[in-house]
Amino acid sequence: MSIDLNTNFGHVTITNEVIATVAGGAAVECYGIVGMASKNQIKDGLTEILRKENFARGVIVRQEEEETHIDMYIIVSYGTKISEVASNVQSQVKYTLNKTVGLSVDSVNIYVQGVRVSND
Amino acid sequence: MTIRTLDGATFAEMVLSGANHLTNNANMIDALNVFPVPDGDTGTNMNLSMTSGANEVRNVQADHVGEVAKSLAKGLLMGARGNSGVILSQLFRGFSKAIEDKETITTVDFAEAMNQGVKTAYKAVMKPVEGTILTVAKDSAEAAYKIAEQEEDIVVFMEEMINHAKSSLKRTPELLPVLKEVGVVDSGGQGLVTIYEGFLANLKGEELPATNEAGPTMNDMVNAEHHKLAQDYMSTDEIEFGYCTEFMVKFEQEKLSQHPYDEEAFRQDLSKLGDSLLVVSDEELIKVHVHAETPGDALTLGQRYGSLVNMKIENMREQHTSIVGEQKKEQPVKKEKADFAIVTVAMGSGIKEMFESLGATVVIEGGQTMNPSTQDITNAIEEAHAKKVIVLPNNKNIVMAAEQAAELADDHVVVVPTKTVPQGMSALLAFHPEQSIEDNQEGMKEAANSVKTGQLTYAVRDTQIDGMTIEKGNFMGILESSISSTHQDKLEAAKQLLRDMIDEEEDEILTILQGEDATSEEVEALESFLEENFEDLEVEVYKGNQPIYSFIFSVE
């Protein structure tokens, strides 16, 4: 599936992979998140942190009727307020997608798949 | 007086002063907020986080600096709000870890703790963005190391450290382009500097002014910078909740006995009305800020708990329109999408008008030798501005392009592959807006196939086709898609074509579309020919003004 935009000069199609990558990129710029995790933990290895080119495995873009929903699987840093980090990710992803893709997202659902405990 | 060591009580005082100073400047910091999301809440979020930290500190009453720092870190963590709040909590988490066993600290300890804080804070981010509160914290901590090497006096140490923090803050626009664009420093960084300033003021026993004298007032900032940027990303139409609503509720015992106040429940109720919600309450008052479409409902909700004080409601659409209006010319009015639209192709002004009078939404001029491209059709589909669009290409050479355009436009566009203008007209007449797009597609296709099309044109070169030899300049009658007649004389060719087309038993109506090069004498001649040979046939003539085809005949 993809997002289609019509402009005066023609037609723009944005695939879900692009949306996933943009959303993932916006999320990892957020404070308190140490990475994107795969949706399928068993299949892809336990809470393996995804590299940029694999963000799509941790970001699911769903179009249901007229609405766009995004599910994001993330790993957060130990010692942060998880609910707050998640809500920061939500607002940043929503904002970034709107700004760069012109896509208005109806919901951004966050699944915290892991906590990275750093040895300090 | 030289202060060489810092005890828990003094540090606690510093924290309270820092929190207080931040509270006083929260609005100004809000106004600076353009990154990461320009929603103007950094100051508010940092303030709520820091206040939570300060409250914890107030409750511990310890003289052990490690204990005080720990309670600050705990309070910050629990009360962390927003990106900046979370970062702040990390900075002081690392800070408190470094000094957790210390009863008192020196400048060296302080610098070490600051650096630990920065380390912890950087660990919790995958991709640190420089030019933010993180950079300011890092630069100040690095400077603190160097200062602490030579300076034992905590006050002097603090002063110099803050100077570095401020110059780091000034550099943030160089590191983060979005800040430079708007001409502001980073809001989170400003918040951190504000906290440090509060620390220092307490050490020196100074009272800080309520607002930073150097900083512009909130309103200046809001009007000048922040809103200007925000509106680049937003059109007036996109304001979902039109009224910025602010009010306070003064609790009344009588009402509370009926409606016990529950902040979370109240926030939930308000969140249904709009966004940008902020609810702060203490024993006496609730303060509410919400962008709502029905501000009255928000006020009514508040009134359940007491009386309303200090109400302010602003129409953000009006404000936004006036701001936008100054910069841009009027934006095109977005009209509601129609349910159905029909896009079709016509050659000739007369045929165009005819399609329009039959109810086509957009008619593209083109056809035979000037076929519209997929792009033209896509544009027309967009222009039609409807939830469902039916495309009638009216030419077999355009069917492909139309189908391509439909595919690009997703599933709300279908093509009824009409190959001729008469087919297109029949299809258009069979359109029923109250039926589904699938039923229409079916019905229109059927209608298109029930009509016979004959077209009269001339040969542009000598050719042999369909077993006929045609000389350049001869007229040819084309029945559907194959050549059925050819003659040197236009009228003769037309008559032959009509004879081939019309089945006297079945056909009832003949429509003649008069082309550009067809004269009215020729039309009259055809009419009398038809009367003589097919007396039961009803004949209608329209000026199609189409090029190339002298006549287009439609029989059904």
From TrEMBL, chain A:
InterPro entries: Asp23. Belongs to the asp23 family. PANTHER family: ASP23_GLS24 FAMILY ENVELOPE STRESS RESPONSE PROTEIN, HYPOTHETICAL CYTOSOLIC PROTEIN-RELATED. This is Asp23/Gls24 family envelope stress response protein.
Automatic annotation (TrEMBL), chain B:
The keyword Coiled coil applies. It comes from the Bacteria. InterPro entries: DegV_domain_contain, DhaL_dom, DhaL_dom_sf, FakA-like_C, FakA-like_M, YloV-like. Pfam families: Dak2 (PF02734), FakA-like_C (PF13684), FakA-like_M (PF21645). This is DAK2 domain-containing protein. Gene3D superfamilies: 1.25.40.340. Residues 488-540 form a coiled coil. It comes from Pontibacillus chungwhensis.
